[in-house]
């Protein structure tokens, strides 16, 4: 059992293991997102208040979920890297960061577009959008900090510390922004918090969320493989792999 | 005959590390304060920056006192926050350049505590003066009466948190040659809660509602950051020095 | 099916200008991520192979020098 984990935590072992795992997640992501898009766009009923603009929920909410989850995943990876010195964890964190920033951006964009028919403006300082914007800045900070160091190891450790500090702050930021929002804009219409949705509305949402998570796992597995090859390119097993291939 | 020699000795041995930590803390703070006193320009710079930024707003927006009064709490808080941010870059830089930081890392005293001493000095020389100067600028922005005490108190309390959190960013970027802009990028998102509760306290004071909740939350933020940040500062200093 | 015709589906009840860009941006990100992944992999492999070939050539040169 421990031997298995030990092997998995080594870049070489993970490289072999993830090759077998990632196709399943790619397939799941394609099927789930495909089904969710068709269902959400064409078959789910229109909302009685917002009409068809409600369908944006099927991309906005999964993107927002992923934006937050990826930051937490990066912080966990950073913790594992700092405490147990497992390099693989840092490689995974490196691989995830751009996707997380991208998801945050898409959540912001779809929220802003959704705001036009709902609030009548492209940007409203809504609690969710505001904390999503701050999360976006946190992502940029982590990516920029990692790139600013010349030594890869110090860049990795600095990014890990910042991610962990950020993840402690995210709930505080969320709470304070919500508090600030209710203080300044009492009882406005929030786009995503609503009375219980009927099944035919939330089932496609669930499928989309699962699809986005599969996509995240698939991307992370595949991209970590690239990071492994890049960082271990001087190691013997990578050189042998490249030699066989060419 | 029992000789009392053993007990004072063990007493002394038991006491010594604690005493030396306290001594080292005081010595670090004294040294940093002295270094700043010999070069008072650095401390005045952030105060001048604060006043300058506040001057820009009536020029840029409107000299209308009524309009200024409504936005004064936010303006004062944002300008003070930026002034505190600007001074962060120098928090560890000189010590990094002349090797003092390395000595601190090698010293027997726990690094998180020693880092906290530096943060305390930073707050004493920037956060506190900014808070004390804010009422003067408040008058210039025609901040309504009755909110001045809350302004000073919220700034004093909030800027302590700003110094503590900012020290993490300063420690992470101290080894980088062009860390200044990056530092603000790292630190500003983390400053949002402090700004919300700080500016909120002043606004609540103007509105005549209770400010206890705001100040309590500012205190809670300070307490939480005091618990977590020293470890992060110490870890960041190690990364910057060994990298 | 929530729509009567394909035209109605495209019109999205008058909200086409909001729904389609939101979905378009999301799909663009997903596709962009996948394309970037493939490009990154291909470039990496090209580099690794080039390095392997160079090493093999150098090893061959060294052998020849020894034998001559």
> What's the pLDDT, averaged over the residues of chain B?
87
Give the helices and strands of chain C as they follow along the chain: HH
Counting DSSP H or I runs of 4 or more residues, the number of helices of chain B is: 9
Total number of domains of chain B? 1
User: What gross morphology of chain B would you assign?
Assistant: elongated
H/E element sequence of chain B: HHHHHHHHH
Strand content of chain C: under 5%
Shape of chain C: rod-shaped
Oligomer: heterotrimer
Low-confidence stretches of chain B: 1-15
Give the rounded overall mean pLDDT of chain C.
86
Ends apart, CA distance between termini of chain C: 80 Å
Query: What Rg of chain B, in angstroms, do the CA atoms define?
Result: 21 Å
Quick overview:
Chain A: One of its GO terms (cellular component) is plasma membrane. The complex is a heterotrimer of chains A (246), B (243) and C (68). Chain A is mostly helical.
Describe the protein in words:
- The complex is a heterotrimer of chains A (246), B (243) and C (68).
- In chain A, helix 3 (57-84) packs antiparallel against helix 4 (87-119), helix 4 (87-119) runs antiparallel to helix 5 and helix 4 packs antiparallel against helix 7 (199-231).
- In chain A, 81% of the residues lie in helices and 0% in strands.
- Chain A is built from 8 helices and no strands.
- Chain A starts with a helix and ends with a helix.
- By secondary structure, chain B is mainly alpha-helical.
- Chain B has one domain (6-242).
- Chain B has 9 helices and no strands.
- With 68 residues, chain C is mainly alpha-helical.
- The N and C termini of chain C lie far apart (80 Å).
- The A-C interface holds A 33, 37, 41-46, 51-53, 55-56, 59-60, 63, 98-99, 102-103, 105-106, 109-110, 113-114, 116-117, 215, 219, 222-223, 225-226, 229-230, 233, 238-239, 241-243, 245-246 and C 1-3, 9, 12-15, 17-19, 21-23, 25-27, 29-30, 32-34, 37, 40-41, 44-45, 47-53, 55-56.
């Amino acid at each position: 059992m421990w031997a298995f984990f030990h092997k998995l935590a080594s870049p070489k072992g993970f490289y072999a293991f993830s090759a077998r795992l990632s196709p399943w997640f790619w397939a799941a992501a394609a099927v789930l997102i495909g089904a969710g898009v068709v269902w959400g766009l064409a078959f789910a009923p229109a909302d009685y208040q917002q009409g068809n603009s409600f369908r944006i929920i099927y991309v906005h909410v999964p993107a927002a979920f992923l934006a937050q989850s990826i930051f937490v995943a990066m912080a966990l990876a950073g913790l594992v890297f700092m405490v147990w010195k497992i390099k693989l964890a840092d490689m995974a964190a490196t691989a995830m960061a751009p996707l997380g920033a991208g998801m945050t951006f898409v959540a912001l964009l779809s929220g802003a577009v959704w705001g036009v028919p709902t609030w009548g403006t492209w940007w409203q300082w809504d609690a969710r959008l505001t904390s999503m914007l701050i999360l976006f800045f946190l992502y940029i900070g982590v990516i920029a900090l990692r790139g600013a160091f010349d030594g890869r190891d110090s860049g990795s450790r600095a990014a890990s510390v910042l991610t962990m500090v950020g993840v402690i702050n995210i709930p505080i930021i969320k709470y304070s922004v919500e508090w600030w929002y209710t203080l300044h804009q009492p009882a406005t219409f929030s786009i995503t918090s609503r009375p219980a949705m009927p099944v035919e509305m939330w089932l496609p949402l669930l499928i989309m969320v699962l699809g986005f998570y599969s996509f995240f796992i698939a991307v992370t597995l595949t991209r970590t493989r690239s990071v492994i090859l890049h960082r271990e390119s001087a190691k013997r097993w990578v050189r042998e792999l490249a030699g066989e291939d060419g | 005959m029992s000789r009392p020699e053993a007990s004072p000795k063990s007493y002394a041995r038991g006491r010594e590390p604690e005493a030396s930590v306290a001594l080292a803390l005081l010595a670090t703070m004294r040294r940093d304060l002295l270094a700043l006193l010999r070069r008072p320009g650095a401390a005045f710079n952030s105060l001048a920056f604060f006043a300058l930024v506040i001057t820009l707003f009536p020029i840029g927006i409107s000299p209308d006192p009524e309009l200024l009064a409504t936005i004064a709490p936010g303006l004062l808080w944002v300008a003070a926050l930026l002034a505190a941010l600007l001074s962060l870059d120098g928090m560890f830089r000189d010590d990094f350049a002349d090797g003092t930081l390395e000595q601190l890392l090698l010293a027997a005293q726990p690094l998180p505590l020693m880092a906290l001493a530096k943060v305390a000095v930073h707050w004493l020389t920037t956060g506190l003066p900014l808070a004390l100067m804010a009422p003067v600028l408040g008058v210039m922005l025609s901040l309504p009466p009755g909110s001045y005490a809350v302004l000073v108190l919220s700034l004093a309390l909030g800027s302590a948190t700003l110094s503590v959190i900012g020290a993490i960013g300063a420690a992470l970027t101290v080894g980088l040659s062009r860390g200044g802009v990056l530092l603000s990028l790292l630190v500003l998102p983390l400053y949002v809660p402090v700004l919300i509760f700080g500016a909120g306290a002043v606004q609540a004071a103007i509105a005549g509602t209770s400010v206890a909740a705001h100040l309590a939350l500012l205190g809670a933020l300070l307490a939480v950051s005091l618990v977590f940040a020293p470890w992060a500062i110490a870890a960041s200093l190690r990364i910057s020095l060994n990298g | 099916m929530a729509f009567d015709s394909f035209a109605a589906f495209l019109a999205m009840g008058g909200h086409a200008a909001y729904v389609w860009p939101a979905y378009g941006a999301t799909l663009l990100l997903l596709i962009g991520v996948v394309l970037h992944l493939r490009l990154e992999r291909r470039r990496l492999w090209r580099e690794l192979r080039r390095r392997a070939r160079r090493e093999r050539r150098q090893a061959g040169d060294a052998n020849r020098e020894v034998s001559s």
